[in-house]
Amino acid sequence: MDKFKFYNDPGHGWLRVPKKLLKELSIADKITGYSYMSRTYAYLEEDCDATTFHEAMKKKLNMPDLKFDDYTVDCYEDGDSHVRLYPAYEPE
Q1: Among candidates 17, 89, 8, 91, which has minimal Cα distance to 57?
Q2: Is the whole model's pTM more than 0.90, yes or no?
Q3: 3-state class of 70 per DSSP?
């Protein structure tokens, strides 16, 4: 299984996910404006949107015991993360 980068700084965290995967999982319209986006990725905020993604992944993979740490790798940034510079997420 591919690993997704989980960017976090002292204040918050975001899971980087290809926007096309959100469409494939039929959750692109369920992601809030508290997440961010670049041209090809969504950076899902850790409290709500990353959970929405995690639940969709468990269903897709038919793995009810799938843990978030099974498919993520931490990318800690000391100070404000570069993710905070991206625009707020909007579904396409």
Answers
A1: 17
A2: yes
A3: helix
Share of the chain above pLDDT 70, in %: 99
Identify whether the C-beta of residue 58 lies closer than 8 Å to the C-beta of residue 66: yes
- pLDDT of 2: 77
- 79 vs 48: CA distance, rounded Å: 22
Which of 47, 49, 48 is CA-nearest to residue 17?
Answer: 49
Q: Which two tokens mark 58?
A: 């468990």
CB-CB contact of 48 with 34 (8 Å): yes
For residue 68, what are the CA distances in angstroms to 16, 46, 48, 74?
A: 13, 11, 13, 11
Per domain, the residue ranges of the chain are 4-85
